[in-house]
Design a protein that fits this description.
about 110 residues
């Protein structure tokens, strides 16, 4: 352990030796001259977040208001249908946002 500390202190005290070691490390690690690749741009997900947060339409509000008057099995079916509709809406927005065609035009 003492040898390591001595070597490090000698290296840090001598700028020429430090430069030589840095150059060697740079060569071993690929030269360091390659430009860093550009990070991919992340899409704007604000439209998706808006759909996720709510944005209840009048139809959704009406269905929610009718729910207490339905039989329990129909309430469950309505809940599943509303979740499916919300997921479909989010999928459509994601597809459009990520550069796909407009979902309505492809049908």
């Amino acid at each position: 352990m003492d040898e390591l500390q001595e070597s490090l202190s000698r290296l840090l005290e001598n700028p020429e030796e430090l430069k030589r070691m840095t150059d060697m490390a740079s060569q071993l690690l690929g030269g360091g001259e390659e430009p860093e690749p550009e990070s991919p741009k992340l899409p704007d997900l604000s439209a998706l977040m808006g759909k996720l947060r709510g944005g209840n339409s009048d139809t959704q509000k009406l269905l929610q208001a009718m729910k207490p008057f339905l039989a329990p099995e129909r309430q469950a079916r309505l809940s599943r249908a509303m979740r499916a509709a919300k997921l479909a809406s989010m999928a459509s927005a994601a597809f459009t946002q990520l550069g796909g065609e407009d979902a309505d035009e492809s049908i």
